[in-house]
Structures are given as structure tokens and as C-alpha cells.
């Protein structure tokens, strides 16, 4: 038996704004131990037995961030395949394409374990036992879901009415009186959104109950390309074919229709970490029931959650508040209203405000950049360039750039000249000069870039050459890669 844990990594980043963003969704949020939810999901999957490889289904724009996150904790050298979606299409498309990939590479009897990258499971022993029970049912042709024994009348979760492993019905998010009745009956479980089945069963049931999704997913897989790099594979789903897959959740498309569904009731310390209230429950409170991460000065403050990774937060005479301070945004919310944070996110998105989409630190194929400060006629960035990586050969019409090497060794192309810039040295790039920055050492190159000119907009760039296969046209180095596949970057680097 081969087990293929499949981690669904994505989301809009709306419920835990301002820490989560469109391009920094909930799976990348780090907990107090320094690990992200995605890393914890990967380690949880890696600890299981009979694991052949681990799949991660994610948006293509999150590839470099996801790859770095997993590489940091993959001490066992697990084989990883990234299935890259060009845009969101809900869980039915993600799971069906994953099952098609597994069937093609490992056979239809291979077992998929579907995990959410943004959920937390505290009890690994109980989780492993539940997975073993689920695998037994999956090998009997069942579509298995994991039902969590409820501990309170939660109205934010869907429920499953069950008798043993038999699913009687799925129930939508209930009202509080209904949730209290469910809890008291002992017949209802929280619907975790975790699943287990063989590739054969999943594909057979999808072909029967959601043939449009199955057929479109199969066509998409057949038109998509795959690249191998050491112990990592990349399957980039064709955007045109992927757009033809109907958007639906696996629950509505299949689980609520199929007669082959079973449930494993379990208590595994599960949480979907779906709000700031759920997240602060993971932290130990002080004597006044406050949960503080970062530096805070409090006077007459009770039952508050305060998080700041940079600035000092002062609070006086308040109760039951969530105060989240990031580099470019601050959230203040009453704990009873944290589920409404998504409305702020929606308004920011409607205004096309950058804080809904990006943090000041952005991942690129060559490393990261962080906007430290920006004003009229100037912008200051911190660049971290990986060993062997380089930015594109480019020029700017309206701005000049000053580069200071903080650590490492930079190889710089500046017009017709090439030079080495060592730590604590600098160079100047006049407007209009073709230039390139390359890491010439076996350690990260850390740079401070000061842009100055009457216009420092992100669209003032012409790219002439690019190591990562991105198009040569007017586009900024730090812009998300919409116009080309990340596999262009991967293949060009081989």
C-alpha cells in the first residue's frame, strides 16, 4: 500500500488579516514555536508510515514561498510534487487533479490522504491511528471523511450525523440552538474537511456524480506539463484547460451525493484556526487573560490578544480586544466580532489596496525583497538574493539606484562594466543604464537598494535578459508572475 498525503495550500487570507494576505494566506502564518501551519501539516504527513511522496496543491504564485517553507523542514528528504493551479477553483478541481496524478504515477490502488495546510492537529498519535482506520476503509472502496468529536456548540463548522463509520447526513453550519442540540445528542461530528480514499474510488465516484469536473480535470492534466528537479516535481496545470473545470467544493460535488461515504470519528486536537479567537487559544494567557506576542505595555487590560513583531503596543483600560500590528496595517477588533474581519479584507480588495494582497516582503525566483520605506521621489528596499541567483538584465528610464552590500559578495553589471562589490561597499546605477545584480558567493547576498527619481513606480523597467525564462518586456522584477509559468523559472535554472 502506498500512501500519498496531499496538502491543499491556498486560501484568500481574509479571516486572519492583516497577517494573512492574498499572496500570504493562512498556511504561511507562523505560530509561537516559529513553524508555519503549512510546515506543521508537512511534518504531520511525513511522520506517517508508507508515505511514497507528498503532494502540495497550491496557486502557482505561491510556489517559491511554498518551496522554501517545505525545504526548511524536509530533513528526511521526502519526495515532493507541487501541483500548480493558475487560479482558485475550489477543492473538487484540486482533489480530482491530484487523484489523476497519483493514478498515473503510482497506480489506482494508491491511497490519497487529503490534508488542509491551514489546519492544526495537536495529537499526532491519535491522528496516525485515525489515518490507519481510514486507510482500511479506503481499501474497501470507501470515500472516508474525518469527523471530529465536538467539544462545544460551534456554529462556524459544518456537521456530520453518524452511527459508527456510517454517514447519515451532512449538515450545514447550524444556529446556536441547533448546535447545542447536536452536541447533546452525541450523534454529530464536526466536518473537518480531511479525506482519505484510493485514487480509483475517487475517480470512479467523480466520473459518476460530477462527470463535468472529472472530464475537464482529465483534459487539463493531459494538456499540462511536468518538470523534475532532484527530489521535487512540478506539475503546472494548463490555464486554458483549468478554466473549463467547473468550480465546486468536494463536499457539494461528491461527498453529499455518493453512497460510498464513511466517516472516522476521532479526537485529534483539531482546529481549523479560522479566526483570531481560534488562533489566540493556541497561546498561553497571563494572569489577566491577555495573550501577548511581541513588545506591549499594558495598564488595566484584560482578556486581550496583542501581536506585534516590530513596534511597541501600548494599551490602557480595554477588554476583549484583538490588536494586531504589522508593518503596514493595524487591526483593532472586539473578540465577539473577529469573524467580521473578512469584511475589511473585502473592502481593501475592492479598492485594490496593496495591503489585501502583499506584505512588504515578497518572494521572487531569485530571493526576496522588502520595502522598508517609500515616499515622493524615493523608495528603499532590502534585497536577499540566494546563492547562484541573479536578477534580470534591466534598465529604468526615470530612476537611479544606489546599492549597498550589507553581507555577501555582489557581481554587478553596470552598463559596459562588470565589477565585484564586497560587504560594506556600494555602487551607483544611473537612470538608463543596463544593469544586473548577481550573488557571487555561497551565502545569501543582502543588499539595500535606494531608488531615487521623479518616478519610482513599479512599471518603470525594461527587462532584456532573464535567467528564469520570464518574458523580456516591460515588467517589474517584483511583480507577481502572471504572464509566464513558474516552470519557465525552474526549467531555465536546470
Could you describe the largest sheet, including whether it forms a barrel?
11 strands, mixed
Give the CA-CA distance, first to last residue: 33 Å
**CATH architectural category of the largest domain:** Alpha-Beta Complex
Q: Please estimate the helix content.
A: 10-25%
CATH topology of the largest domain: Spore Coat Polysaccharide Biosynthesis Protein SpsA, Chain A
Instruction: Outline the low-pLDDT stretches.
Output: 474-483
Instruction: Count up the helices.
Output: 12
Mean residue pLDDT: 91
CATH class call of the largest domain: Alpha Beta
Percent strand equals 25-35%
Structural class category: alpha/beta
β-strand number: 30
C-alpha Rg, in Å? 24 Å
CATH superfamily descriptor of the largest domain: Spore Coat Polysaccharide Biosynthesis Protein SpsA, Chain A
In total, the number of domains comes to 3
Bulk shape: globular
Description:
The chain is an alpha/beta fold. The chain folds into 3 domains: 3-271, Spore Coat Polysaccharide Biosynthesis Protein SpsA, Chain A (Alpha-Beta Complex), CATH 3.90.550; 284-347, no CATH class; 361-493, Jelly Rolls (Sandwich), CATH 2.60.120. The protein has 12 helices and 30 strands. The strands form 7 sheets. Strands 1, 2, 3, 4, 6, 7, 8, 9, 10, 11 and 12 form an 11-stranded mixed beta sheet that branches. The chain has a 6-stranded antiparallel beta sheet with strand order 20-21-22-29-24-27, with no helix packed on it. Helix 3 (90-106) crosses helix 6 (199-209), helix 3 crosses helix 7 and helix 6 packs across helix 7 (211-222). It is globular, with a radius of gyration of 24 Å.
Amino acid at each position: 500500500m502506498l500512501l500519498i498525503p496531499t496538502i491543499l495550500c491556498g486560501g484568500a487570507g481574509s479571516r486572519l488579516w492583516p497577517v494573512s494576505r492574498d499572496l500570504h494566506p493562512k498556511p504561511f502564518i507562523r505560530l509561537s514555536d516559529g513553524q508555519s501551519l503549512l510546515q506543521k501539516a508537512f511534518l504531520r504527513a511525513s511522520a506517517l508510515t508508507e508515505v511514497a511522496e507528498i503532494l502540495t496543491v497550491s496557486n502557482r504564485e505561491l510556489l517559491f514561498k511554498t518551496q522554501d517553507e517545505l525545504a526548511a523542514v524536509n530533513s528526511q528528504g521526502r519526495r515532493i510534487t507541487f501541483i500548480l493551479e493558475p487560479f482558485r477553483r475550489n477543492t473538487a478541481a484540486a482533489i480530482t487533479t491530484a487523484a489523476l496524478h497519483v493514478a498515473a504515477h503510482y497506480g489506482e490502488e494508491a491511497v490519497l490522504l487529503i490534508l488542509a495546510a491551514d489546519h492544526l492537529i495537536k495529537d499526532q498519535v491519535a491522528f496516525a491511528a485515525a489515518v490507519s482506520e481510514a486507510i482500511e476503509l479506503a481499501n474497501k472502496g470507501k470515500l472516508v471523511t474525518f469527523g471530529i468529536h465536538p467539544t462545544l456548540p460551534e456554529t462556524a463548522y459544518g456537521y456530520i450525523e453518524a452511527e459508527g463509520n456510517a454517514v447519515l447526513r451532512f449538515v450545514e453550519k447550524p444556529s446556536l440552538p441547533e448546535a447545542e442540540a447536536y452536541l447533546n445528542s452525541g450523534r454529530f461530528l464536526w466536518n473537518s474537511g480531511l479525506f482519505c480514499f484510493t485514487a480509483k474510488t475517487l475517480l470512479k465516484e467523480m466520473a459518476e456524480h460530477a462527470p463535468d469536473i472529472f472530464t475537464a480535470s482529465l483534459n487539463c492534466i493531459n494538456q499540462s506539463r511536468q518538470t523534475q528537479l532532484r527530489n521535487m516535481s512540478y506539475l503546472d496545470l494548463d490555464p486554458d484547460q483549468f478554466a473549463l473545470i467547473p468550480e465546486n467544493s468536494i463536499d457539494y460535488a461528491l461527498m453529499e451525493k455518493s453512497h460510498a461515504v464513511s466517516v472516522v470519528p476521532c479526537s485529534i486536537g483539531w482546529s481549523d484556526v479560522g479566526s483570531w479567537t481560534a488562533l489566540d487559544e493556541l497561546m498561553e494567557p497571563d494572569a489577566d487573560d491577555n495573550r501577548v506576542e511581541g513588545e506591549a505595555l499594558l495598564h488595566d487590560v484584560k482578556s486581550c490578544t496583542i501581536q506585534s513583531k516590530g513596534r511597541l503596543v501600548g494599551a490602557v483600560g480595554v477588554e476583549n480586544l484583538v490588536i494586531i500590528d504589522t508593518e503596514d496595517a493595524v487591526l483593532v477588533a472586539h473578540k465577539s466580532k473577529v469573524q467580521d474581519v473578512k469584511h475589511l479584507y473585502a473592502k481593501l480588495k475592492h479598492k485594490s489596496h496593496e495591503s489585501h494582497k502583499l506584505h512588504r516582503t515578497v518572494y521572487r525566483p531569485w530571493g526576496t525583497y522588502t520595502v522598508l520605506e517609500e515616499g515622493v521621489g524615493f523608495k528603499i528596499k532590502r534585497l536577499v538574493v540566494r546563492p547562484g541567483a541573479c536578477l534580470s538584465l534591466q534598465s529604468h528610464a526615470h530612476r537611479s539606484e544606489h546599492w549597498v552590500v550589507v553581507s555577501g559578495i555582489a557581481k554587478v553589471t553596470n552598463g559596459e562594466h562588470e565589477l565585484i562589490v564586497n560587504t560594506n561597499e556600494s555602487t551607483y546605477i544611473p537612470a538608463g543604464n543596463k544593469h544586473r545584480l548577481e550573488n557571487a558567493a555561497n551565502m545569501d547576498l543582502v543588499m539595500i537598494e535606494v531608488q531615487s527619481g521623479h518616478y519610482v513606480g513599479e512599471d518603470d523597467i525594461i527587462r532584456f535578459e532573464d535567467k528564469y525564462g520570464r518574458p523580456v518586456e516591460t515588467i517589474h522584477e517584483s511583480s507577481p508572475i502572471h504572464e509566464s509559468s513558474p516552470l519557465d523559472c525552474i526549467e531555465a535554472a536546470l
